[in-house]
Target: CHAT domain-containing protein
Amino acid sequence: MHNRGSSNREMASGEALPEPSHDSARSLEVKQDTITSTNQACTSNFLTNTTSILREEVDTGINKLLNLLGDSSSDLESQEIQVVWSHMDSILTLLEAPEALILDDRNTGQLATMTILSMLESDDAHRKEPESFDLRVRCMTLIMELTCAPEDKQGLILALDGATLSHLDQLHYASSESAYHLDIALEYHARMKSLDYYGDSVDISQMLSEIGSLQYRNFTGSELTAMGKINDFVMHHRLARQQPKATTGLDIALECMTTSVMLTPNYHSSLPSRLQTLALMHLMKYLMFYADSRLSDHMVDINAGIEYQSRAASLTPRDHPDYHQRMAYLAFAYTTRSNAGTGKKSMEDVNKAHALYPPALSRHADTTLSFHLAHAKALEHRFESGEGLDNIREAIEALSNATQLETNIRDFQPIRTSIISHLGALHRKMFRSLGRLIDIDNAIDFYTKALLLTSNEHDHNVQGKILLGLIQSLQARYNRLHDPNDNDRAMKYLAELYSRQEKMGLSLVEMIELHSTLVQAQSGIIPLRYQGADNLDYSYIAALDGAMKRAHQWLSAFPEGHDYHSACLSFLSRLYLDRFNHKKDSVDLDESIKYMTKATSTEHMSNIEQTRWLLELAKIHDLRLVHTKKPEDYDQAIEYATRALSLLPEDHIDRADYLTMIAFIHSHRYTISSNPQSSEWARATLNCFREAALSVGGYPTSKLKAAQVWAMSSTGIGWHDRALEGFEVAMSIVPEVVWLGATISRRFNEIETIRNLALHAAALGISSRKYLKALEWLEQGRFIVWNQTLQLRTPLEDLHLADSVLAQRLQEVSGELHYASTQSSPLPIGTMNYLESDSMEQRRRRLAEEYQQLIEKAREIPAFKDFLRTKPASDLLNVARSGPVVVVNISAHNCDALILTPGCSEVTHVPLPEVSIEKVQDACNQLDNSLRRHYVRERGFHRVDANPKNPPADTFEDVLIFLWSAIAKPVLDVLGYIENPPIGELPRLTWCTTGRLAMLPLHAAGYYNRPRCKLSDFVVSSYTPTLSALISASSTPSIRHSDVLAISQEKTPGQSHLPGTKQELDFINKHASEPVVFSQINNADATCELVLQAMENSDWVHLACHAHQNVTDPTESGFFLQDGTLSLKKIIQKSFKDKGLAFLSACQTAKGDERLADEAVHLASGMLLAGYRSVIATMWSVVDADAPVIADQVYGQLLKCRRMDYRDSARALHAAVNVLREKVGDKEFTRWVPYIHIGA
Model:
């Protein structure tokens, strides 16, 4: 038997367990005296009266007791008293037998019982032990049965009362015998009530409630009185990966509180609170031990919790202070159960919770972190079931409110981390639906902040979930913005998560997501790569097979219908698909279809899962259609893809991709058709591409791709009207792809994805005789980045008159955005540095978004409905002010020239049948080879010929002949210059070239061994990157120019000496006389900062120094000065006003980038962008001795009348080049050809 000694009987409330009343104690003492005085007589009677077997057995037992007690000289030890109690138990068992109640044995029984009772009462050391009380109860029960005296009934009641209290007292100590103590206490209490006793006995329901609460607090280790706080506690332990305690204390608490509730009348005021306490205990047990299980046997506690909390809420009047609190607890319980359920019943719980939360949380001040988290999850569940994005917005608001709670966060830091992480997940879902960059930016911010909060080892569990969400968010933003920093960071975290996956506490679904990400990653972290790679080796297949083995194990661990089971099916399908893409084994393709078909047939799927899996199944059928050419796969693919599309909202960001997939399915059916002349599938294909391009929802890149395929495919089959519409839509999407919210360098990278789009569109416009439209498209699709930068500098005087506040804010945002666009964030090292770096990127994106909003607001003003829209072609006709402007378009379809002449409202079309992309490319290769042979090569690299004695024939002249016969002469013929050569001053002709033609010296076209067969005999040539740029350059300065600044770097650190630079500046100084002011900065004084400042204060600038072209990042191209590089990025940060000529007497200042030929990414265009109206530059490296000749002739011409007019710079350069050509010889092309003029 169990013995603990005396107890202080501390109750849950802090009060002592009540002792028996004074009257009952006094009565027992009197009886004890009586028994003690007759003890010897009774014993003697036993010794003499031995006529019965019972008496003999009782006599033996009493004697043993007396011997035991007689041998003890002091209080009995625990072990000794246990022996005494055991002998007493044996004697009482004899006396309790039915045969002991015969008449002859009644006296024996009564005397023996009174003897034992006397012994128990005289044992002060152990009389309050439950075992002592149990024996006294048995004694008093026997005495009452033997005597039926009223005073004996009262004694039994008092004994039962004391025993009840004693056993209840034992419930304070959680042990394996607690259930016994509870049962016996209830039994004693029931017996006491059966004796018609209604005195001042203990309120057992109250005591059980207090004991249950105490045991509950002992289990949790804190004062937890609310469901939300219970979940906070549970989450803290689960997220911190602490092992749960044994359930004994919680089980005792549940037993006590359940009994308390059963014993509490419905009218009792404490019943609702006791029901609520019981509910939270059941919820605690479920959350602590069964939350990861969905077995019905493990749902008992959560069901009981809801039942008890529902009763508590129903018994609480609406005007009760705790009414809304109890409703919030009930909502929390419904949410908890919904997380474990599936299908209709789960949604019923979600909707019940959703109906209860808003009023409860808005009125209940003592909300907890977990209430808001549970509310958010309920809303998220509704969204995933197709209830709309408003649920996600509400969920974000709920969690945002939770982060503002004044809670002792330090005690439950993992919960706060979980909330912040979940905010990241919600924002990512917003992005997945709407595609707004602010949502994915917020998602990454929250995940990163959550990661910073998980620095301890016990945080590994939640860290894995955060890392996975962060990886997926970074990849999503990379797919949208193509920022390599996002991809690099995602791969870094992916490697970390993969290497520690077993320690990260990921759920099965999260493990599947991790392995899916790994399969798709092209990082080389593990040998898994994305489908389509041709160089995959055995290690890839081994890793893939390992993933498949694991997926099969997962699949067998969960029954059909379980969420995890369907997730495993879809994962297996993707793995088989990956293996098919490598091995091309059709069995893998069949298996992939089998598993994905099973996954999509699952009864309980979220709307999101169903949509995604249906499209994946459609893709696999389409792949098999292409592989096996079985038409039935076409029917299946179309059916699944159409079903998937029907589940997407009209504005969903994936809608364009889904439509594009359907278009490709139709096109594949068209391709394998036995009747190629049938247009049914072709029409269906183009309709889907059209719908994708025009869809409200869709990533800009997806819509642009759809529009391009729509236009190009329509062109290919001769549907020109549809093609024109497709190109119109494609060109309108370009600004969204090459977006102002990205840095200039990143926008240049984006332009590579739309290379030649404008050229193809213009070619179709020209062939359709829509020349103005062709010019518009060329303006929209070329020089994009520079045009965007120029747009930021648009004067806003007129808008100021209409809305000064709007104009002021637009001017501020434009300025900030212009500066931010030229800033590249430093490479982040560490998470904290990443936050700082990413904030710069996000700031730029928010500015771009606000900028567009301000423009839209300005367009609401009637007079500004076309504010900052692309100029219509009719406006472009006015660019031809100083002479004809010729736009030459190079396309795979046709090559043409469009001529704009002064005072003419028509565009003249000149077909160029002798020109093709291939011929232009050949000419570029020939030119490059020639420059290499002459030691003139891009980026200043010189290579000595391997065989200088027998050099191959120079092809430079062939290039110039091609340009003359194929382009220049046809244009001059149409202009009438060949038949009627200009007399006197040659006319100006400005070339606007496209594609790779921009890399060729069209201004030098001609035969140099025939009279009047070269372009320079007929016109003075200039270039302009676009027509719009020419409009800006032709504007008249507000002040007259009078300052010339010259920069020379004869001895630049790390570069070869340029002695000719000093002579250049001497020539300029010679020609500059009052009122012209000449200033110069030479050699060591020429620092980047000083030069920029001087440029700002001067009208013209002459730069005589080394320069270089950066092909990796064009904006880092620049001029080498004393303390570094004056880069193009630094120059265009300046918004110079009223500047004139920029003479760039350096190497490669007009050498464009082959990848970005239509963007004019060179220093010369940068000077136009910085505000200079006219630029003299070089296409490749120049001879140092030639530069002073050109400078002398140019400035001698420009400054001869003591005035500065940049508009004469083209003619001055023309004359200077003629002088140099005559000096070095016509055939020294590499020396005089590189000098060109750009601008007005």
